[in-house]
């Protein structure tokens, strides 16, 4: 809703400058798409950060429920191998693009959980 609201503000303020007949003019569709793309690009790290937070909670829940850290670690390694994923990407790439914690961080978390439990 936020992206649509900001797009509406942009279209209302620039319809005259862009030669549009109003916000509902079909010729403004590329501007609308550009605004939504930029909004999505800016909010993607926030959305991905929240998703990583939920995934960390899910991993902890799985470890607490099963009490099998070794199985969790092995499954993460197998998952990384099957998906041919980068186990330890640079932190800035993880922040910008990843919606799950990096495999290496998930394995480290499980190893720490194993030491505590």
Report on this model:
The protein has 117 residues and is an all-alpha fold. The protein is built from 5 helices and no strands. The chain has helices at 2-14, 29-66, 69-83, 91-97, 103-116. Helix 2 packs parallel to helix 5 (103-116). The longest helix has 38 residues, at 29-66. The radius of gyration is 22 Å and the shape is elongated. The model has no long low-confidence stretch (mean pLDDT 91).
Task: Give the arrangement of secondary structure elements.
Blueprint: H1 2-14, H2 29-66, H3 69-83, H4 91-97, H5 103-116
Features:
single chain, 117 residues, mainly alpha, 5 helices, 74% helix, elongated
What is shown here, in short?
The chain is mainly α. The protein has five helices and no strands. The chain is elongated.
> Are there runs of 5+ residues with pLDDT below 50, and where?
none
Q: In percent, how much strand structure appears in the residues?
A: under 5%
The largest β sheet comes out as: none
H/E series: HHHHH
Distance between the termini: 43 Å
| Tally of helical runs | 5
The count of strands amounts to 0
Mean pLDDT: 91
Helix content: over 70%
Label the structural class: mainly alpha
Task: Supply Rg.
Answer: 22 Å
Silhouette: elongated
């Amino acid at each position: 809703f936020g992206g649509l609201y900001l797009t509406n503000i942009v279209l209302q303020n620039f319809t005259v400058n862009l030669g549009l007949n109003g916000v509902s003019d079909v010729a403004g569709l590329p501007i609308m798409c550009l605004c939504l793309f930029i909004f999505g690009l800016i909010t993607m790290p926030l959305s991905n950060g929240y998703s990583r937070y939920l995934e960390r909670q899910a991993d902890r829940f799985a470890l607490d429920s099963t009490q099998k850290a070794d199985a969790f670690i092995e499954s993460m390694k197998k998952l990384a191998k099957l998906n041919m994923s980068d186990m330890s990407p640079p932190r800035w790439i993880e922040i910008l693009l990843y919606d799950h914690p990096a495999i290496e961080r998930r394995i480290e978390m499980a190893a720490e959980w194993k030491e505590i439990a």
